[in-house]
Amino acid sequence: MKKKHSLSQKDELVPFKMALNTLCLVLLLLTVFLPYWLKIQNSQEHFHMGIWKSCENKIFLLKAVQALMGSAILTGILALVNIFLLLISAVNDRTFFFLSSALCSFVTALLGLFGQSIFMVITNTSTLANIDFLYFDWAFYLGWCTYVLYLLNGSLILVRKHSTRVKPARQSTDKSMQECKSMST
Question: Which of 27, 83, 120, 139 lies at a C-alpha separation of 20 to 30 Å from 170?
Fold first, then answer.
């Protein structure tokens, strides 16, 4: 007879991990789709620029940034789906989904960091005429914070999974040592 596990026996932090992963994905979507990566000012006007709204002539590099950020969104969604499956207890092999979610979180962070780094290179080598000031805007910084949260999320998943796996092994070792002591006396 199979015993049904409660959430507290499996991992009581899965809802927290789900909430953190959802927050990360929402922040990533805001970062990618808002046109507030750069604020460009000249003497007559100022305007904002993102990876989808651009006045840059380096199309190939901007397309690479768009592809990297799109891939980051896909891996972020995959990480969220894996945690959701753990939350609703729809899977038997929990280790695979924990590791898969952690890996997807790390890959999302790395893709985003690499994409934003390329965007910084595009910006620093920019040859826009009549520019007085060029500032990175708030959505750009939101992206950096999002990737730190993704790295934290992946780390929490791995640390918690590892710590829940180690505890039962210690208990069984302690029991076997106690049995050996009682047999020897």
Answer: 83
Contacts of 112 (CB under 8 A, 6+ apart): 28, 31, 68, 69, 72, 143, 146, 147, 150
Q: Work out the end-to-end distance of the chain between its first and last CA atoms, rounded to an integer number of angstroms.
A: 37
At 126, is the secondary structure helix, strand, or coil?
coil
Q: CA 184: distance to chain centroid?
A: 53
pLDDT value of residue 181: 62
Tokens 């829940």 found at = 164
- pLDDT digit string (tens) for 12-41? 778 888 899 999 999 999 999 999 888 887
CB atoms within 10 A of CB 101: 27
- pLDDT confidence band for 4 (50 / 70 / 90): very low
Buried b / exposed e along 156-183 (16+ C-beta atoms within 10 A): bbbebbeebeeeeeeeeeeeeeeeeeee
Q: Look over the chain and give the mean of its residue pLDDT values, rounded to a whole number.
A: 80
Q: Give the span between the Cα atoms of 175 and 177, in whole angstroms.
A: 5
What is the H or E stretch that residue 20 is in?
helix 14-33
